[in-house]
Amino acid sequence: MTTASRIIWRTIRVFNYPRCCMLNNNVTSLSSCVKINNKKNIILTSTRSISTSKYYYHENDVIEEEVKAKKKKIFIPKITLLSEKDEISVMTLDEAQKLAKRRALKLIKIVDFDTKTERPIYKLMNISDFIKEENKAKAEAKEVKENSIKEDKTITVSSKIGDHDLNTKIKSMLKMLGKRHGIRAVISVDGSQEKADEVRNKIIESCKEVAKVVTKSDAAHNFKVTMRPIMQKAKDKVLNDEKSNEPEQKEQE
């Protein structure tokens, strides 16, 4: 490539070809002889040659200029890390795992996602503390499970029921209350409503030590009562009943 051609194409690259409509009277229109590719800045001439007084630029001459692609930044999520002394630091999970390995500590996730920092929270703990925390968490979960009330059991009773059968029904209710079930007693009105109300009151009175009344409702055809167990009292009642029944079972044997 001649010196003049180099100067022309350097000028085009620097000033951008739309600004350089005519370089001199002897140069053909650049808009008809320049093409730019999207991927590479490839400047091509048309079939005609470009002349600049004494010098000629042949159609086969091509100038290629590589466009440097911008490197995409890879997003690496970070975590909030609490040390053994509850000192806060921010780092990647990989860095935290390496730190825990170097110090022979356990890396424990304590919060899945903190809305304030928008990061999960991890903590470094030594093995003995980790075991203590794990046992404590298991004990708390067990306590919550033991103190949680199970689904209600529905027991239907007729207002004409005899005393013996009613006492059997009440014993069954007490056992269910001891197993953390709620009780929904439905007394069907077979005759007078007063008798149905009397049966319901006897059920409530018999269970008042281990259960509390949540709802009561009266209708033309039935009377209802819903009771929920008082947890510890219900358990103690069941245990006492089991102990009192043991001598009777031995005598029968």
Automatic annotation (TrEMBL):
A GO BP annotation: ribosome disassembly
SUPFAM superfamilies: Translation initiation factor IF3, C-terminal domain, Translation initiation factor IF3, N-terminal domain
InterPro entries the UniProt entry points to: T_IF-3_C_sf, T_IF-3_N_sf, Translation_initiation_fac_3, Translation_initiation_fac_3_N
Residues of the Translation initiation factor 3 N-terminal domain: 73-141
Molecular function GO labels: ribosome binding; translation initiation factor activity
One Gene Ontology CC term in the entry: mitochondrion
Gene3D superfamilies: Translation initiation factor 3 (IF-3), C-terminal domain, Translation initiation factor 3 (IF-3), N-terminal domain
Keywords of this entry: Initiation factor, Protein biosynthesis
Disordered: region residues: 233-253
UniProt record similarity statement: Belongs to the IF-3 family.
Protein name as it appears in the record: Translation initiation factor 3 N-terminal domain-containing protein
Organism for this UniProt entry: Aphidius gifuensis
